[in-house]
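User: Run a structure prediction on this.
Assistant: Running it now.
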Amino acid sequence: MNEMSKVALVTGATQGLGLALVEGLAQRLGPADTVYLTGRNLDRVQEAVDAMPAGGARVRGELLDVAEPAAAERLAAQLKSRHGGVDVVIGNAVMRVGPDDDPRRIVRDYVQVNNFGTTRLLRAFAPLLRDDARLLVVASSLGTLHQLAPVLHHRFDALESLDEVDRQVAAWRDAVADGSARSGAWPGFVNIPSKIAQVAAVRTLAAQRRETDLARGILLAAVCPGMINTPTSALWWNVADAPTPARAALALLDLVLGPVDPAHYGELVRGGKVLPWSPSDGAGQPIPYAAASRG
């Protein structure tokens, strides 16, 4: 990264992986640097900031509800005014789905956070990236076309704009909400199309920026942290042997602080390795959900 003071931002950072990422960044950056811990509840944001260990970079709390249409753009403008740009942005905000949730009832709120929240973050902060910056979206190993029936691959493959990603997400959302997705080829678990759409958003933006970003040392990628031992994950599976959030954060911090591998650019990365997007990419098979993601 460049030698000026670093500015980092993590969304969904009041607990779990996001909180661990903020703490890891703060420990690894210097006193002149700033790490923004953001979330949708200001009291929880402040509590998380107050609980941060001393030393390293300054941790500063900011309200950011990615489900609010103008929130990411508003905060990006504030950071541009304060710092002129950003060096690290990690999109980690997520609305989780529980075993008893009815997809038809929750899908509209779900995509507002997980999908439209992702594209809003990309639109707002990609223009602020300094040389050697990192822009990562926390997704899942579920976010590949291997998880989707071939008849649906065109919905998310080789899209031309983030607006088109949003249109495809909205069409799927509406099909879930009105029940018609059940009679089609869509997976019943809403997390699968949602994660695929997150990775599709990264791939779409990366296709537009690849040459310039790589020349500037910028990495744009989706990342899978794997299964994490959290109370939410425990609702679904036995996570007793899964890594803690702090341990799961280490591979993501390596991507942030290490040199850019051009092979990672625009891809879904897990444990330092690229996961193939589609069957035509070569190796890669559907991954059982319990092995794939935090949820």
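The longest strand covers residues 129-138.
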